[in-house]
Design goal:
Layout lengths: L5 E6 L2 E6 L10 H14 L7 E6 L10 H6 L2 H21 L4 E5 L2 E3 L1 H7 L3 E5 L3 E3 L2 H4 L7 H8 L1 H9 L3 E3 H7 L4 E3 L4 H13 L3 H34 L2 H15 L2
Parallel strand pairs: 2-3, 3-4, 4-6, 5-7, 6-9
Antiparallel strand pairs: 1-2, 7-8
Helix pairs in contact: 1-3, 3-10, 6-7
Length: 255
């Protein structure tokens, strides 16, 4: 039986979702995104699951969207629809009644960072490589920017997206992008302690508190994401962006 793109494990009231495409640094394929949505739809109705944790198999959490898959789609509309699907699926995290935690190691780039931003809490390894490289290809992150601004402020959000700079997990903690930064060897254990601690709190109070915070920012986030999708589509179909994408794919295919 083939490995699933997203593996689910449950223990002590915590659901562990592991992105499982280690051969490509857990790049976000449409198959992976659909599996992720399948699990979320099941877990949201599970009263015995108190917390949801997302991790990445292998050397990285997630290196971003699968650019080879995007390059193979027919037309910019299809690409925009694919990215819109990812936005819809990962925004479900914000609507989940359970608290969500992302454990970040290795590459946490582009859509991978976007996915992390849709979690309630983020714990990063000191040496994680974090950033939004999209502008180097000729487009902008199509989702998650509003959450980036909320976490780090407008000036730092501009810096991270417009320079396409990468920062370490330790620097991400200083910037407010993650809640905790730890040694790589301590990442899973730290995440486990945080998740179990949350799982032991009164479930109704925890869910109601999360819902209250969600109500305060939901309207602005929806408007921001819609506009980001529009601009992403315009930028992605530009000749310069297509040329850079083609060069990237050819470079990756070399032995």
């Amino acid at each position: 039986m083939a490995n699933r793109a997203v593996e689910l494990r449950e223990a002590e009231g915590v659901a562990w979702l592991t992105l499982n495409r280690p051969e490509c640094l857990n790049a976000l394929s449409l198959a992976l995104v659909r599996e992720y949505r399948f699990h979320l739809e099941k877990l949201r109705h599970r009263f015995d699951i108190k917390v949801i944790v997302t991790t990445g198999a292998g050397r990285s959490f997630c290196a971003g969207s699968d650019l080879r898959e995007l390059a193979g789609l027919d037309g910019s509309r299809s690409v925009a629809e694919a990215e819109h699907l990812k936005s819809d699926v990962f925004s479900m995290l914000g609507d989940m009644p359970q608290p969500t935690i992302a454990l970040l190691h290795g590459h946490v780039l582009g859509g991978g960072l976007g996915l992390a931003l849709y979690h309630d809490f983020r714990v990063a390894a000191f040496d994680a490589v974090v950033g939004f490289p999209e502008l180097d290809f000729g487009w902008l992150p199509p989702w998650g920017i509003d959450r980036l601004v909320e976490l780090v402020g407008l000036s730092k959000a501009k810096w991270l997206t417009m320079t396409a700079a990468t920062i370490s997990g330790a620097e991400a903690k200083e910037a407010g992008l993650v809640n905790l930064s730890v040694l790589s060897a301590e990442l899973i254990e730290t995440g486990k302690k945080l998740a179990i601690g949350l799982a032991r709190k009164p479930g109704n109070a925890l869910a109601r508190t999360k819902a209250l915070f969600r109500e305060s920012s939901a309207q602005n986030a929806t408007s921001f994401d819609r506009r980001a999708h529009e601009i992403f589509k315009e930028c992605f179909e530009a000749p310069e962006a297509q040329e850079r994408l083609s060069k990237f794919i050819k470079r990756k295919r070399k032995p």
